[in-house]
Specification:
Elements (H helix, E strand, L loop, with lengths): L57 H8 L6 E3 L4 E3 L3 E3 L1 E3 L5 E5 L17 E3 L3 E9 L2 E13 L5 E2 L3 E5 L11 E8 L6 E2 L6 E9 L12 E6 L18 E5 L9 H12 L6 E9 L10 E9 L27 E5 L22 E5 L5 H17 L18 H14 L9 E5 L5 E3 L28 E2 L6 H5 L3 H15 L5 H12 L3 H10 L7 E2 L2 E2 L6 H20 L36 E11 L2 E10 L7 E6 L5 E6 L1 E6 L2 E6 L11 E9 L10 E4 L1
Parallel strand pairs: 2-8, 10-16
Antiparallel strand pairs: 1-4, 3-6, 5-7, 7-8, 9-12, 10-11, 11-13, 13-14, 14-15, 15-17, 16-17, 18-19, 18-20, 20-21, 22-28, 23-24, 25-26, 26-31, 27-30, 27-32, 28-31, 29-30
Length: 697
């Protein structure tokens, strides 16, 4: 698929790798959610897609079938070399002459004829050859790749090497690359060893904010000699052509994405397989050197509809009538970053969804786009109807409720700054309901990002506001007491097992154990451990990798403890799940407390971080000598600043005037107690501090 996306995953060193299937093979016992049958994608329960086939002995056969050498014999197999390498060519076709190229293009009748003298290379070269008989090409063309290197560093993780033959750093368009995978032998990985997998490929820059960091994320596509996609078991994963290389940079623990993917899989949600690897990317014409080492990467499967990924019914171009037009679809919200095809919403702009991108099928036919748009519009409108929770006509008739419950729990436990709004995936198979997932993009979580300070442990991420909103689907579901009861029951179930502190700690230990030496090399390459602001993002400043892991763990435990309280989804301690049956009635709005004399509050406005064109603001609200039940803060910008997004308060603007009102969880403050809310804004030229005024109720 030639579409901006994601990258690689594997299974080479068991302790270093992610789960070998989407939903976990050893899933937590949930009697009300049967484990889905491997091939039955129409009767999934618990939001889990059918588990993709595990990698097995057939992968060797797949790799052999995709051998790029074709009917050409190369005296030296693909690999790395130092100094120079000499290669003789031949053909398995009797009596044929061999024509070759070294510029990446396939040989043609006018290409040089191999005259019998070995070809000598001193720089990275893609050697392509074709047998000719009587002036006509015959047999399968062949390719061998030789990568010059000037480094011999030993590793203990798998190593992935990309060499762009001196083409320069890629932008958003694909650049040709040699792809070589090196596997550990006796716990040591060396670039001087024979690669365990070789492929032609193309790669390009991916990501949004992450693309601005020096540790660059990439999208990788494996290719055959005809420049078509070729499915290979990269890093031991089930064979496919499309992969993502994610380089943890703001995530200094290195494991946030892997942690959440594994956790989600064990819950029953679909999540891509992954593997840790150390990565070299060489984009200049010099041999691979120490400065081409980019550190520890998470190699992860892209989200796509294919047999070894999210295996839904395939929609062909002619599938424009019922029942085939009903699936399968993969779509996502990408706030401010959605790419065509984008589905519009009909209705008031303030209540409509925005930035809804269809990922699959690709290409999407107009009739398919309209059917999916109408189906989502019906669901969207039902959420606003008086009987929106009716089990027959309400939201349960449109969505796989269990998967939405689990997705909300994942988003709230991790409290990612882009939760619900970006990389927010859903899928719908033929004649089935809308499932929440797959999981994607959890590097800005567990206390990392623009929204987090110590007092952000409490509160709800689904209450964050951005303008215009991507969607409010989860916010509407939370208004059904029956849905809330399902969330509470599920949370308490998970806390007794998969989400217990002991099991969460064990998962961290399993992920970090193989990374100790690699993490040291990673932070020698990228010494950012003590840097607080990375771009616009606030990050922990522990000076050691172990300290960064500890920060993630402590933040997660504190967040889980808050969710255990009566203000969250618990009863203040270990209890049985709630027994209150779900109801279809919308909740009664809470009564408001009228303003009373004697209640006062103050507001302190500060700038947490600032960068070209943008800044992060924070406002601390403090109650006076009497307790208050709510607060409102106002200020007026003097220099044309604007608020773009906020959290832990509802923020509205009218010209330069800004009003912020408390969220449900932080309005009631005891005498002298404080609460904080934050926002991201834009500025140009001057960013002076306004005077904030607080009114209590």
């Amino acid at each position: 698929m030639r579409r901006f996306g994601y990258l690689l995953a594997g299974v080479l060193v068991a302790a270093a790798l992610g789960p070998a299937a989407g939903p976990a093979q050893a899933r937590e016992d949930r009697s009300d959610r049967p484990v889905p049958a491997a091939q039955d994608t129409s009767t999934r329960s618990g939001g889990g897609a059918a588990a993709p086939p595990a990698s097995g002995a057939t992968d060797a056969a797949v790799a052999a079938q995709a051998d790029p050498t074709g009917d050409i014999t190369f005296s030296v197999p693909s690999g790395t070399f130092q100094g120079q390498v000499s290669v003789a060519l031949g053909s398995t076709v009797a009596g044929a002459e061999v024509r070759y190229t070294t510029n990446g293009q396939p040989p043609v009748a006018s290409s040089p004829v191999y005259a019998g003298t070995p070809l000598t290379f001193t720089r990275s070269t893609q050697l392509r050859a074709q047998a000719y008989l009587n002036g006509a090409p015959t047999g399968e063309p062949g390719t061998a790749m030789y990568v010059a290197r000037a480094v011999n560093t030993a590793h203990d993780l798998p190593v992935l090497l990309l060499d762009a033959y001196g083409a320069g750093a890629p932008g958003r368009e694909y650049v040709d690359t040699a792809v070589m995978q090196f596997s550990p032998t006796n716990e040591t990985t060396s670039l001087s060893a024979a690669p365990s997998l070789v492929s032609r490929g193309g790669f390009h820059l991916r990501g949004q904010s992450s693309a601005t960091f020096p540790k660059t994320p990439y999208r990788l596509e494996l290719r055959d000699n005809a420049d078509d996609d070729v499915d290979l078991p990269l890093l031991g994963m089930p064979a496919d052509s499309d992969w993502v290389l994610r380089g943890p940079y703001t995530d200094k623990a290195l494991i946030r994405d892997a942690f959440v993917h594994g956790l989600g899989q064990d819950m029953g949600l679909y999540a891509s397989r992954y593997a840790f690897a150390e990565v070299y990317v060489n984009t200049d014409a010099n041999p691979v050197a120490a400065n081409d080492y980019l550190g520890v990467y998470l190699i992860i499967e892209t989200i796509k509809n294919s047999k070894n990924r999210l295996d839904l019914k395939q929609l062909d171009e002619e599938d424009v009538t019922l029942p085939k037009i009903t699936g399968g679809y993969i779509f996502k919200f990408e706030w401010l970053a959605a790419e065509e095809p984008i589905l519009p919403c009909q209705g008031a702009d303030a209540t409509c969804w925005h930035y809804l991108e269809v990922v699959d099928p690709d290409p999407l036919q107009p009739a398919q786009a309209e059917w999916l748009r109408q189906h989502l519009q019906q669901f969207h409108d039902v959420l606003r109807s008086p009987n929106f929770a009716d089990p027959t006509t309400g939201y349960p008739s449109f969505i796989d409720v269990d998967s939405w419950v689990d997705m909300l729990i994942v988003n709230e436990l991790t409290r990612g700054m882009d939760a619900y709004l970006r990389s927010a995936y859903f899928y719908k198979d033929r004649d089935s309901k809308i499932v929440a997932g797959p999981l994607w993009d959890f590097d800005l979580t567990f206390g990392v990002g623009g929204y987090f300070q110590n007092d952000q442990i409490a509160g709800w991420q689904y209450l964050q506001t951005r303008s215009p909103s991507a969607n409010d689907w989860f916010q509407r579901l939370i208004q059904d007491p029956g849905f809330v009861n399902l969330v509470k029951a599920r949370w308490q179930e998970l806390r007794r097992g998969l989400f217990s502190n002991a099991q969460l700690q064990a998962r961290i230990d399993r992920l970090t154990a193989p990374l100790t030496a690699a993490a040291q090399r990673n932070f020698q390459r990228w010494p950012n451990l003590s840097t607080r602001m990375l771009g616009p993002f606030i990050t922990p400043t522990s000076p050691t990798w172990q300290g960064q892991v500890q920060y993630m763990r402590d933040w997660m435990f504190q967040r889980a403890n808050w969710l255990d309280t009566t203000g969250g989804w618990g009863t203040g301690g270990p209890t049985s799940p709630p027994t209150t049956p779900p109801t279809t009635r919308p909740p009664t709005p809470p009564a408001t407390t009228p303003p009373a004399s004697g209640r006062t509050c103050t507001a302190a406005y500060s700038i947490v971080g600032q960068w070209t064109g943008g800044f992060q603001g924070s406002v601390r609200v403090t109650a006076g000598s009497s307790a208050i039940s709510g607060w409102r803060v106002t200020w007026t910008f003097a220099n044309g600043q604007t608020v773009n997004q906020s959290w832990d308060a509802t923020v509205t603007s009218s010209g330069a005037a800004v009003t912020a009102t408390n969220a449900a969880h932080n309005g009631a403050l005891g005498a002298g107690a404080s609460a904080t809310f934050g926002f991201l804004g834009s500025w140009n030229g001057t960013n002076s501090l306004p005077t904030a005024t607080c009114t209590a109720s």
